[in-house]
Amino acid sequence: MIALSYVKSLFTRPGPMLRKPGMQKSSRITLSDVAKAAGVSPITVSRALRNPAMVSADARARIDRAIARLGYVPNPAARALASGRTDVVGVIIPSVSNNVFTDVIRGIQDGLQGSGLSVQLAMTGYSPLEEERLVRVFLTQQPAGLILTGHEQSPAAQALLRGAGFPVVQLMEVGPEPLDVAIGLSHFDGARDAARHLLDRGYRVPAFLGAQMDPRSQRRLAGFRDAMAGSGRDAPPVVTTPEPSSVSLGCRMFADLIARHPSVDAVLCNNDDLALGVLFEARRRNIDVPGRLGICGFNDLEVMQAAAPSLTSVHTDRYRMGQLAVRQVLDRLKGGGHPRGTSIDIGFELRARESTAGRAG
């Protein structure tokens, strides 16, 4: 379930060695060795590595030449002892196979360019207990910051993160009382607006399909039900499953839905994989989209624009979330950033396309 190179590895990775005549054992090249070779003080080398702008161009050039000649690699353990942290930002996500989180990671990585920090990634497999274990692991490694998803951490994990002593950013949604700073959107509002869009386009019997019903998906379902209740539809068709989402699952779920509710003429899916599956199954059954069936997804992956017909979806800017999370960590390390308890709502956009052009007749 986990694909992670833990920060722990930074403390055990051997660095380049300098062997001197008559030595029986190798010794690590030190920062002092670099300083001596470059003709500067050790503190100047340290500044050049941490904040090059604080060192003159001439000194930086001499230090760079000395590092290249000696093969020096900074000792992360020593740096962690000196600064109280490692140069690592921990990122805990549910899954790397979910394309939604791929965009988040890309935003984080791009945001860290030139900062001197690197990413250490862990996956929970959607398990709160695994997330709690990973939080404990990262806490022992003194990261520069920790980015994780959602607000439903276990009580033990929440207590640990509140006292972590480094920036903590919760991504993907906003809500009351973030542990530190939260960046995301209202999944309830996004799904409610999408459901209202289906009604506005003339669809009479919208249904909801949901898989991997994590808390964000549950909020999307609640938003759908709220829109239906507001239009006098108190018991709309709903089919959900705890199974991991996939296109093929969307095919099967839609087949089950119309077998039980043949009058359904629109489907709001809790993600884009399911929406694609609904489209494929509808085409296999010669069901006209959008004339007989409207389809809407959530997240707006790139494939939604390329589908035929193109698929309506709720656009969420995952890349921007990742970049804003990194900016918060970097700003906090410099003594700035948003104060604890801040929620940043970046909003969403319903991108209406061909799949909800309107019901025929």
Keywords:
361 residues; alpha/beta; 434 Repressor (Amino-terminal Domain); Rossmann fold; 6-stranded parallel β-sheet; disordered N terminus; transcription regulation; Peripla_BP_I; LacI/GalR-like_sensor; DNA-binding
Describe the structure.
The chain has helices spanning 31-38, 42-50, 57-70, 76-83, 99-111, 128-140, 155-162, 187-200, 215-230, 247-260, 272-284, 303-306, 318-333; strands at residues 17-18, 27-28, 88-93, 118-123, 145-149, 168-173, 181-185, 206-211, 238-241, 266-269, 294-299, 312-315, 342-345, 349-351. The protein folds into 3 domains: 29-74, lambda repressor-like DNA-binding domains (434 Repressor (Amino-terminal Domain), Orthogonal Bundle), CATH 1.10.260; 85-185 and 318-346, Rossmann fold, CATH 3.40.50; 187-315 and 350-356, 3-Layer(aba) Sandwich (Rossmann fold). Helix 5 links the parallel strand 3 (88-93) and strand 4 (118-123). The chain has a 6-stranded parallel beta sheet with strand order 4-3-5-6-7-13, sandwiched between helices. The chain is elongated, with a radius of gyration of 26 Å. It is an alpha/beta fold and 361 residues long. The model is unreliable at 1-26 (pLDDT under 50).
